[in-house]
Specification:
heterodimer; A: mainly alpha; Non-ribosomal Peptide Synthetase Peptidyl Carrier Protein, Chain A; 0% strand; B: alpha/beta; Aspartate Aminotransferase, domain 1; Aspartate Aminotransferase, domain 2; 2 domains; 4-stranded mixed beta sheet
Chain lengths: 88, 415
Amino acid sequence: MDELRRAIRNYVAHEYLETGDDRTIDEHTPLITGGIVDSFSMVSLKRFLELEYDIDIPDAQATPAVFDTVAGIADLVERLRQANPAPR
Amino acid sequence: MSYGPEARQWYQQELLRLRDAGLLKEERFIHGTQGAEIEVEFPEGAPPRRVINLCANNYLGFSGHPAVVAAAHRGLDDRGYGMSSVRFICGTQDLHRELERRLTRFLQTEDTLLFPSCLDANAGVFEALLDERDVMIADRLVHASIVDGMRLCKATQDTYKHSDMAHLEEKLAEYKDKRFRMVITDGVFSMDGDTARLDEIVALAERYQAMVLLDDSHATGFMGETGRGTHELCGVLGKIDLITTTLGKALGGASGGCVSGRRELVAMCRQRARPYLFSNSLAPMIVAGAIEVLDLIEHDTSFRDRLMGNAAYWRGLLVSAGFDVKSGQSPIIPVMLYNAKLAQDIARELLDEGVYVVGFFFPVVPKGQARIRTQVSAGHEKRHLDRGIEAFAKVGEKHGVRGMGRKELVDAFGL
């Protein structure tokens, strides 16, 4: 798992797994369809990604389909960073 | 597209999909007054049959109480049928003012403002008080009306893991640069029946200079020694900045809600909350009924004592019968089944056995957390609950769910 995916996975595990929940989250674990993240709690994940990676995620792209896996989220972050690289 | 044949067909297929998955919600028709036992027509057209009701918010049994009904009649006779106005134009009677003052006294706050419902109170309160300079931090299991109300507000939104005080503290620290911080929680969580750790929330709020908003709809009237609510139960009377609650549950069961709390915050809602500004005033008969309820409970704890005794008894019966029951002390006692179709099937069969309950599944509860939410009332007698557990035991045995915890139920039935 690359650094981006690892950082997203670690954030998701810390932010969403309750104490005592021993599920393992990998890059393909279903987050929304698996009931780990929902549309109400997703706001903090979106905010983390925007602040951490200096990107702006349009609401139209912050969809359950994209946010359902760490891999999907990482792909979105990479696309947005490429489209709008952070200033030097 | 306009509502032509294509649109109609799309929605028809969506409804068929729900029905085929066993997830279609169907109304059951009650012939008579709400109560511990009711006459139910289901399916539509079938002759009504008498069943035990274990799914009403009629916690204190006031939905059909003769004194409350009589008071509503007096309200109708003395003050008419409706106000035909929003409150601030010509929709406020002396009765509305009296009820607001009575609720203030009962909840031990500074002021109260009535709304058409607590859903409306929650829809209006955040937008009226906060803006983009502020942050709202809500427990992840708050009521849907709070989720919707928060979405209407331009303040930053965030959530904390359910009842996780360490996570809440992280969030409060994260937002220390915001103008106002508001922590938002239910008092008794409507689908789980557990109680907020309100004393710890208040302590954190004081440390991080945050306001606290408490939706106490499933607590007002019976939680705490004298039924003031979760704030009384947790020893923080006078320390909650805003309470939203309903008149549609323990306090009579008709309709209506309110915001109650710090004088200035309530006053701002009176100026700015959209449901208050744009929705019709509460009918006089409902106001009169609610005042009567407060007369009945303000100095008499017998109703809430009976309710809490019934809750402890029913919980014990379910646990002894081997059901997976969420822990708590409220009269909301969910029987966890996790699989949505299983919850629907068992609820349907319980009705055949003379017990009226409903299965709850996504989006009402999180995915994979389907349940039958049972609720007891002060109006239940021991014989109702004994008959109820007979039905639960029979249907539970048939489906093989007795004695199973989460892992076994999920392994057997899936999510």
